[in-house]
Write a structure and sequence with these properties.
Blueprint (H helix, E strand, L loop, with lengths): L2 H19 L17 H5 L6 H19 L4 H21 L1 H4 L11 H23 L5 H26 L5
Helix pairs in contact: 1-3, 3-4, 4-6, 6-7
């Protein structure tokens, strides 16, 4: 078995378990919840199998929906993020993306931060629009998206620095 595949399977299980056990039970102000399970989609290899990413993203979202009782909004938001991921890479990294020299879990640079911010915003906006499904809740959607994005980015940065391999 390929070591990249093993790392991705381990990352999938670990991030999902941490999200379900810890972060699903952690809410701020009653409605703000960090969702660092998105790191699986964001840290998936740039040159990895695209259909594998879509399938894994769907399974990730479906599992979250199962444990959150949310009716498919996580699966849809994860698929939207997986589909927009190459465009976010091109926007954030430019030419570096085309040569596939990107490692997201290195030190935080403005390019990596913009990638993380755009990806989390796309996911959260999709998820909260589907959750509310009414235009009359626009301010609620914007507030939840903004605050949850802030807490998700903070938790993702902390997790990235915790799992970052040490240089010897």
């Amino acid at each position: 078995m390929n070591s990249t595949l093993l790392v991705n399977v381990f990352r999938f299980i670990l991030l999902l378990a941490v999200q379900i056990v810890i972060f699903n039970n952690m809410t701020f102000l009653g409605f703000i919840m960090p969702l660092p399970y998105l790191l699986f989609i964001l840290l998936y290899p740039v040159n990895g199998n695209k259909s594998g990413l879509l399938l894994a993203s769907f399974l990730l979202g479906l599992t979250m929906d199962f444990f959150s009782n949310s009716g498919g909004i996580h699966a849809t938001a994860c698929l939207v993020l997986a589909n927009f991921r190459p465009y976010i890479f091109k926007f954030s990294f430019g030419v570096s993306y085309e040569y596939q020299t990107i490692k997201i879990n290195d030190s935080l640079t403005p390019e990596r931060f913009s990638f993380l911010l755009l990806a989390v915003l796309i996911h959260h906006t999709t998820m909260f629009i589907l959750e509310a499904f009414q235009v009359s809740f626009l301010w609620d959607i914007l507030l939840r998206t903004l605050l949850s994005t802030i807490f998700t980015i903070i938790s993702c940065i902390i997790i990235i620095y915790l799992i970052k391999p040490t240089k010897r």
